[in-house]
């Protein structure tokens, strides 16, 4: 639920920044100081938007790296057990795996 709220808040903040920027362009011809302040606030929204997107990307990368490391550890343990026991009575994550007779080396 929180991820959904965060997604919509990022979309909303991006839409607000674009709207403010689009409003600032016509106002620029009417009153220059107001237009500059509107453009500055739009740039601030964009900066905040980019900051949170980078934070989100950083946490996503860390989570994926942790998953890859865990998978690599499991695979290395399985490969070591296969080498030691020649594929007979291999235990992976608490489950006993026995190869078919056609897979055994003679």
Structural class from helices and strands? Answer: mainly alpha
Average pLDDT works out at 70
Could you tell me the strand content as a percent range?
5-15%
Query: Judging from the principal axes of the Cα atoms, what is the shape?
Result: rod-shaped
State the order of secondary-structure elements, H for helix, E for strand.
HHEE
**What's the number of helices?**
2
- End-to-end separation in angstroms reads 55 Å
Residue stretches low in confidence (pLDDT < 50, at least 5 long) are 101-106
Give me the side-by-side strand order of the main sheet: 1-2
Give me the count of strands. 2
Q: Helicity level, as a percent range?
A: over 70%
**Into how many domains do the coordinates divide?**
1
Major sheet summary line:
2 strands, antiparallel
Radius of gyration: 28 Å
Question: What descriptive keywords fit this protein?
Answer:
106 residues, two-stranded antiparallel ribbon, 2 helices, 2 strands, 78% helix, transmembrane, transmembrane helix, membrane
Write the layout of secondary structure elements.
Blueprint: H1 2-30, H2 32-85, E1 90-92, E2 95-97
Transmembrane segments: 12-30, 36-55
Keywords: Membrane, Transmembrane, Transmembrane helix
Q: Quick recap of the structure?
A:
With 106 residues, the chain is mainly α.
Explain what this protein looks like in three dimensions.
This protein has 106 residues and is mainly alpha-helical. It has one domain. Helix content is 78%, strand content 6%. The chain has two helices and two strands, in the order H-H-E-E. It has helices at 2-30, 32-85, and strands at residues 90-92, 95-97. It has a two-stranded antiparallel ribbon. A hairpin with a 2-residue loop joins strand 1 (90-92) and strand 2. Helix 1 packs antiparallel against helix 2. The longest helix is centred in the middle third of the chain and has 54 residues, at 32-85. The protein is rod-shaped, with a radius of gyration of 28 Å. The two termini are 55 Å apart. The relative contact order is 0.07. Residues 101-106 have low confidence and may be disordered.
